[in-house]
Amino acid sequence: MHCPFCRHADSRVVDSRTADEGTVIRRRRQCLGCERRFTTVEQLTLAVVKRSGVTEPFSREKVVAGVRRACQGRGVSEDSLARLAQRVEEHFRASGSAEIPSREVGLAILSPLRELDEVAYLRFASVYRDFESLDDFENEIATLRADRERAERHRDENEGQEQDSTLTVAEP
């Protein structure tokens, strides 16, 4: 690490601390040449391994670009796309993996995209789950409908329980 002040090549670590749930290390260093102090930040670099075997750094921008195509004409905001990309990146950082196959990145996008927009989800899923026929689409739509109905029943049951627990009976 070169000193940012005098460009001397050697420094010693004075203090180290973790940040962001252990995914980042902040080091306080002192230059052995000019003795000034400076801070360095070390962060795990996520790498995506493509089908061809080529490795490249994970890019939120690429996630947003891919999802934007699936959301074309759907009225999904850029802010929502950025939050989705952040969720995907946080998922992989939390996993502790340094290298991620590109297929896993695509599959990790599916769940948050499904919550964001079901039509965009179907478009994206058709590529990453290799839909080959109309039956694949029909099966996925049936799954979406069943999950939606299950969630609605669950919500209705919870609302009923909340109402029951708030009722008080006054005795004369």
Give descriptors for this structure:
3-stranded mixed beta sheet, 19% strand, 3-stranded antiparallel beta sheet
Largest sheet: 3 strands, antiparallel
**N→C terminal distance:** 81 Å
Low-confidence stretches: 166-170
> How many distinct helices?
5
Shape: elongated
Proportion in helices = 40-55%
Q: Structural class, please? A: alpha+beta
Give the overall average pLDDT.
Answer: 89
**Number of DSSP E strands:** 6
Q: What are the secondary-structure elements, in order, as H or E?
A: EEEEEHHEHHH
Strand order of the largest sheet: 1-2-3
Strand share of the residues?
A: 15-25%
Radius of gyration: 25 Å
Describe the secondary-structure layout.
Layout lengths: L10 E9 L4 E8 L5 E7 L3 E3 L5 E3 L2 H11 L7 H18 L3 E3 H15 L1 H11 L5 H33 L6
Parallel strand pairs: 4-6
Antiparallel strand pairs: 1-2, 2-3, 4-5
Question: If you had to describe this structure to a student in words, what would you say it looks like?
Answer:
This protein is an alpha+beta fold. Helices cover 51% and strands 19% of the residues. It is built from five helices and six strands; from the N terminus they run E-E-E-E-E-H-H-E-H-H-H. It has a three-stranded antiparallel beta sheet, with no helix packed on it. A three-stranded mixed beta sheet has the order 5-4-6. Strand 1 and strand 2 form a beta hairpin. Helix 1 packs across helix 2, helix 2 packs across helix 3 and helix 3 packs antiparallel against helix 4. It is elongated and about 70 Å long.
Structure summarized in a few sentences:
With 172 residues, the chain is of the alpha+beta class.
